[in-house]
Amino acid sequence: MASHEIRFDDGAAYERYMGLWSRLAGEAFLDWLAPRPGLRWLDVGCGNGAFTDLLIRRCAPGRVEGIDPSEAQLAYARTRGGGGGASGVAEFRRGDAMAVPFGDDAFDAAVMPLVIFFVPDPAKGVAEMARVVRPGGIVAAYGWDMLDGGFPYDALWTQMRAMGVEVPLPPSPEAGRTDVMRGLWTGAGLEAVEMREIIVRRTFEDFEDYWTTVRGGPSVRTGIASMPAEDLGRLKEKMRQRLAADGGGRITLGARANAVKGRVRA
Q1: Could you say which of 23, 85, 213, 217 has the lowest number of CB atoms within 10 Å?
Q2: Range of the domain at 173
C-alpha cells in the first residue's frame, strides 16, 4: 500500500473543507478566552487564516502575527479581507511551531488553533509559545479529539480504512486528548491551566455538497484520487447510506474539540 502524506497545498480547498469548522470551534474558543482588546497575538499554524480572520473581527487585537510552514496556505491567508494588508493588523510569514521566529516576551497571547496534533514535538511547540509570551500572558489551543472520534470527517476516515485505503494521521494525534493537553501545559510551567470541551455542528446542503467538500481534504485527497473508479463509486455510495439526511436532503455532522489555556508564570 502506498504511503500518503498530508499536504496543505491548496488554501481554497482547505477553506471549504475545514474553514467553517475552524470558525465554528473558534467562536466558542474565543468566547471562553474572553480576551481584552488591543493585545499582541501570535497565531501558530495559522494555515489559510480562517482563525486569524475570526480573531481580528471578534477581539480587536492590536497586532497579529501568523506563522505557518505552507506558502500556499499563507498566500490564501493574505487575500482575506479581515487580515493582511487589507486591515494592517495581521502579518503572515513562514515559520515553524517548534522554532518560533520571534524573541522572548514579544506577545500578550499565543494560540495554536487545530494545529497541536500536527507538531512533531508538541511539548516543544508549547514551550515556544510560552517563551514568546510575556509574563502573565495567555497561551491557549484547541484541537480535534482525533483518537476518540472527534474529527469532523471521522466517518469518512473509518469507511476508507475499512476498504483498505490509507488515511494518514498527523504526527501527534494524541495531542488533542484532554489529559495530554493538560500535561503539555503544566509541563511548560504554565499556571492557572483550564480545559474545556467544544462541540460544534455543520450542515451541508446535500450529499453532493458534502462529497465535493471532502474530496479536497488534505488527509484523504491522495487516497481518494488513487482509488479505482469502481471502488470510489462504492465508497461514495457507502457514505451516502451512512450519513442521514433530513427531509430537505441536508446532512448535519458534529465534531468535538478539546481546548486548553494557561498563563505564563509572572
Answers
A1: 85
A2: 11-146+169-203+255-263
Whole-structure pTM over 0.85, yes or no? yes
Q: Classify residue 232: in a domain, yes or no.
A: no
Angstrom distance (rounded) from CA 208 to CA 75: 28
Is 114 in contact with 105 (CB distance < 8 Å)? no
Whole-number Å distance between alpha carbons of 145 and 152: 10
116 falls within a domain: yes
Q: Is residue 42 part of a domain?
A: yes
Angle, helix 229-242 to helix 154-162, in steps of 10 degrees: 130
Domains contained in the chain, number: 1
Model confidence over 141-172: pLDDT tens digits? 999 999 999 999 999 999 999 999 989 899 99
List C-alpha distances in Å: 152 to 149, 169, 178: 8, 14, 17
Asked whether residue 22 is domain-assigned, the answer is yes
**C-alpha of 175 from chain center:** 12
Q: What is the pLDDT of residues 55-69, one digit of tens each?
A: 999 999 999 999 999
Q: How far apart are CA 175 and CA 178, in angstroms?
A: 8
Q: Are strands 191-204 and 90-94 parallel, antiparallel or unpaired?
A: unpaired
The string of DSSP codes covering 114-132 is: T-GGG-SSHHHHHHHHHHH
Count CB atoms within 10 A of the CB of residue 236. 16
Q: What number of other Cβ atoms are within 10 A of residue 187's Cβ?
A: 12
The CATH code of the domain that includes 27 is: 3.40.50.150
